[in-house]
Specification:
Layout lengths: L2 E6 L7 H9 L4 E4 L8 E5 L2 E5 L12 E4 L4 E2 L1 H13 L4 H4 E4 L3 E2 L2 H14 L11 H9 L14 H16 L12 H11 L3 E3 L1 H10 L4 E4 L24 H7 L6 E9 L2 E3 L12 H9 L12 E3 L1 E2 H11 L3 E5 L9 E10 L2 E3 L10 E9 L15 H14 L3 E5 L7 E3 L1
Parallel strand pairs: 1-10, 1-11, 2-5, 2-10, 5-7, 6-8, 7-9, 11-15, 14-16, 15-19
Antiparallel strand pairs: 3-4, 12-13, 16-17, 16-18, 19-20
Helix pairs in contact: 2-7, 4-5, 4-6
The structure holds 6-O-phosphoryl inosine monophosphate (IMO) and magnesium ion (MG).
The site of 6-O-phosphoryl inosine monophosphate has 22 residues, from helix 5.
Enzyme class: ligase
EC number: 6.3.4.4
Keywords: Cytoplasm, GTP-binding, Ligase, Magnesium, Metal-binding, Nucleotide-binding, Purine biosynthesis
Length: 419
């Protein structure tokens, strides 16, 4: 069997959690392969709502095992909070989660470093979620990091002290006040809590699952435009959010990848700093934010909003090798008289259909306009959707060369059309 991948094609918050939850029933294993508690994957069913941070969105399925892969950076404190909230809802997390020994740990001092670095950047700050993601990945690639498997080592406390010392020496370069023992006791207690979980060599585990004829669903966090290589650098996160990240973050060979589900919103949002060519600063942007409830699931920050950007979407489809698209939050566009889509950019007065290298370039979107559509509630088959809506979907399919197989018409599991 192959491993299928779900990932965001924009700047995060595309609705990946919902799609994983909808598809998870078909997969015995769901695996997160990168990112950490900067993610906030919202899931709604019945009268219940959850926001998952590091735990894969297969956790609600009785028959699914959830892997936290080696590519993830895990904060024991948030992990424990997340687990306890789920246990409170009757979900047996310990039986359903396996953690890679090679996943890196986020220390409280990583969060301090994140805050100090952002404060020092001033106006040019990234707009990080301040969860310690960047500093934790810096320690990983700098070969200083601590991993989940280190919890099983006799000298865990010495390793911790030595890494903390490194962090304090870096912090001396910043003019930043902090409490060196911030959250340390809570972190140590959460580390003890984590010891009750199954730690595995997940690269062996996932390959065995595939060899035994079972499928895996790999759940990406953030989005392609936040990828450390291909996103709008430096306004990106610190991991590989693209499809290749699933290989690296789980130990899967590239020929093990099957379907690649690319998730995008019918419009665009971005939270934090960085370029956003189709951003709207007017009443329409405000309406998108209000109707789409576009506020960060993690940081509660209002998200920036704008029209769909096909230049960026086609770029993401290319980098990720997307085989099926899922268009989310279609209902949010209901009631707009006209809907716009960027089909090209004007860069320094010249039209192009290329994401420019220079993040700071003046980019002006070239739009095509579509008729809006009305209320979509209660519609459960593609053929019953308004013609203007189908025109929009089919235009996106022609432009990207990829079928839109999943359409989300509302937050609930049930408000989904699978073509
Ligand atoms: P999900 O998985 C949206 C953004 C931050 C910031 C930049 C770097 O819910 O889609 P970091 O904390 O990684 O150093 O922040 O990336 N960002 C996200 N935006 N959704 C996310 O995750 C994000 N994770 C990080 O706002 O601009
Ligand atoms: Mg989010």
């Amino acid at each position: 069997m192959k491993a299928d991948v779900i990932l965001g094609l924009q700047w995060g918050d595309e609705g990946k959690g919902k799609v994983v939850d909808v598809l998870a029933g078909n997969y015995p294993v769901v695996a997160r392969f990168q990112g950490g508690p900067n993610a906030g994957h919202s899931i709604h069913f019945g009268d219940k709502s959850f926001v998952l941070r590091s735990i894969p969105s297969g956790i609600f399925r009785e028959d699914a095992l959830n892997i936290i892969g080696n590519g993830v950076v895990l904060d024991p404190i948030t992990f424990r909070q997340e687990c306890e909230a789920l246990i409170g809802q009757g979900i047996p997390v310990k039986e359903r989660i396996y953690i890679s020994r090679k996943a890196h740990l986020i220390l409280p001092t990583h969060r301090i470093l994140d805050a100090a670095s952002e404060a020092a950047k001033g106006k040019s700050k990234i707009g990080s979620t301040l969860k310690g993601i960047g500093p934790a990945y810096m320690d990983k690639t700098g070969r200083n990091g601590m991993r989940v498997g280190d919890l099983e080592a006799g000298d865990f406390m010495q390793r911790l002290e030595s890494l903390r010392k490194k962090h304090f020496s870096v912090l001396r370069q910043y003019d930043y006040e902090y409490d060196p023992d911030m959250d340390l006791q809570e972190w140590l207690s959460a580390v003890e809590y984590m010891r009750g979980f199954n730690f595995i060599d997940s690269e062996y585990f996932v390959n065995k699952v595939l060899c035994s004829g079972k499928g895996i669903l790999c759940e990406g966090a953030q989005g392609t435009m936040l990828d450390v290589d291909f996103g709008s650098y430096p306004f990106v996160t610190s991991s590989s959010t693209v499809c290749a990240g699933a290989c690296i973050g789980l130990g899967l060979a590239p020929n093990r990848i099957g379907e690649v589900y690319g998730i995008f919103k019918a419009y665009c949002t971005r939270v934090g700093s960085g370029p956003f060519p189709t951003e709207l600063f007017d009443e329409t942007g405000e309406e998108l934010r209000r109707k789409g409830f576009e506020f960060g699931a993690v940081t509660k920050r209002p998200r920036r909003t704008g029209w769909l950007d096909l230049v960026a979407l086609k770029y993401a489809v290319m980098i990720d090798g997307v085989t099926a698209l899922a268009m989310m939050k279609s209902d949010v566009l209901s009631g707009f008289d006209k809907i716009k889509v960027a089909v090209a950019y004007k860069v320094n007065g010249r039209e192009c259909a290329h994401v420019p290298f220079d993040t700071y370039a003046e980019v002006e979107p070239v739009y095509e306009e579509f008729d809006g559509w009305g209320d979509l509630s209660g519609i459960s088959s593609y053929g019953d959707l308004p013609k203007s809506f189908r025109d929009y979907v089919e235009f996106i399919e022609r432009q990207t060369g990829v079928p839109v197989k999943i359409l989300s018409l509302g937050p609930d599991r049930e408000q989904t059309i699978i073509r």
